């Protein structure tokens, strides 16, 4: 057991050791200082010239959002039609069929919004063409979209009254050429040398040692698995995602994938501090996020290492913890760490089946996605966190009777309205979705649909409810992991989750950028004795309390019906 | 909208070429240099491919070390777990059935000696490994059937046990395919 704990600690320390210098690098790159990736400049110039883009034209926040939404719409249509006709497109050695319209709708949105919820299995539901030209492509550009939106925020935070916030295309392309692509190349090479396939050969078959015939799905997976983690996407090449022994062959690749998915979210926190020269503020933010992570992680590790009480009752020994849905090569401590990492930062890749995790872990994973701002996804994590900061500033302002200010700007009614709507949107879409699906399940279990509601759930009782709650939570948080027992490849789930995905992505990007854009245009008030300091631990605690109250408590009744009830009934 | 649409289309085209075309081809070229040449590492025995090093396969015969239960019956073209929740009564019945089956084939083994991974399904359905304890608990059965001393079989389990990464990080494990190959080779030497 000790080597398992040291493995987790080592992984986290390695993450920090890479993320902090990466944060310095991102700040330098964004400021326009010299970096060792400047050799990418000719490629960028070529991309801009080809696309007819003048990066010197600065945009205000609305123009940024128009550009973002336009290019995202292009990708949505492109992805939908490719998936719909994938059987007729090239690179389909396994002869996989077209996706149905509802599945293509769900898949296209899911990857567009950086969620990567998968209602299909990679082995049979996608072709090599769609895996690369739709899914992997969207994994790059959706992550870059999030980072570019965050860069707008960075610009808006400066001590300067302006509506000129840089150029969206510039931010977007450089996020790819200077951050995502180089890191993906390194990660993919590590994976390839540890046994993840890279070739375009289709399925293989052989006779096993004891004489059975076995078929093995393969394919050029390493490239995609790299960006799947670097871009906090999470959609896997194979159905079992990173539990699959080709997608994640050993402990070293597991560590690589764990580190890869957290470095950009953490680096961006530090990049903000270095870029704005507000290091202390970045440390406070990092502290709050890390505290949140630990509060989710420790109970999960404890539950998974202790094992299942129901299995213990049968007299079975669980020296390696709860093993249903887990892989021997990772062990329970590391799997628990992955469970939490993948849910706090909206990756949603899995190295175990979350549906089979202990109820305490299920609770913590859902809570991680419900708060959705402890480190958070590429770019969007800090955008979410910013909403909570605005609310915390406002509440603390009221408490001490001063005008709420953040980074030298007054926060007034309009900004607060936007922040409140965004903060409430998340619980709203999750709880309404779960309520509607529960209603359908109870009142029309035998509806004459292709998949009857009565056969949606893979588990009875409280756990079945958790499956539905988890699905909408994962969709709204753009996470993408699932309680995969849920029969989700049908019209009801594909379509309803598809809309939750869209709402859960674009409004939480537009809201914070709008607030920052409006604030940047306001008069700058220099710090005085009366200013609420945002770089103190007191303020950190305040933000944490707001997250706890707004995000966590709104979900408590639903969680009580799912994982909490299951926990107390499991003996 | 028009100001943004044309650049969006062109940018999409050029990025598709770079990210979905050139990038994976470059990785595929590097993959050629890796041990499995990018096709996945296979294991050869007596002149034929008997499996992939990393992918678990079904071992249900008593003369071999059993691999873990699999929700997809080790179909490596459709991976997946059982997705059974810990409180599911049908699932708990399945586990109980596996325990009794294991005890029937391994007389003399008590419940407390059976590690959980032998009666629970893995996440991928293709788990290639067992914990060392999961292999050792099967030694008596195999020794009896193959007529080889338990001590020699224990030795090959020890030899096949892979230590944690750098001896420091992660669990120890035994690759079931490699272990069973060693077992067959042991017989061949006799």
TrEMBL record, chain A:
Top-level taxon in the UniProt lineage: Bacteria
UniProtKB keywords: Cell membrane, Ion transport, Membrane, Potassium, Potassium transport, Transmembrane, Transmembrane helix, Transport
Subcellular location: Cell membrane
Transmembrane segments annotated in the record for this chain: 6-27, 66-87, 133-154, 175-193, 258-276, 281-298, 374-400, 421-442, 491-520, 541-565
Main location: membrane
Membrane topology field: Multi-pass membrane protein
Subunit and partners: The system is composed of three essential subunits: KdpA, KdpB and KdpC.
Family (UniProt): Belongs to the KdpA family.
Described purpose of this protein according to its UniProt entry: Part of the high-affinity ATP-driven potassium transport (or Kdp) system, which catalyzes the hydrolysis of ATP coupled with the electrogenic transport of potassium into the cytoplasm. This subunit binds the extracellular potassium ions and delivers the ions to the membrane domain of KdpB through an intramembrane tunnel.
Protein name as catalogued: Potassium-transporting ATPase potassium-binding subunit
Organism this protein belongs to: Mucilaginibacter lappiensis
From TrEMBL, chain B:
The keyword Nucleotidyltransferase appears for this protein: no
Superkingdom of the organism of origin: Bacteria
Annotated membrane topology: Single-pass membrane protein
Keyword Hydrolase: no
Keywords: ATP-binding, Cell membrane, Ion transport, Membrane, Nucleotide-binding, Potassium, Potassium transport, Transmembrane, Transmembrane helix, Transport
Subunit-level organization: The system is composed of three essential subunits: KdpA, KdpB and KdpC.
Name of the featured protein: Potassium-transporting ATPase KdpC subunit
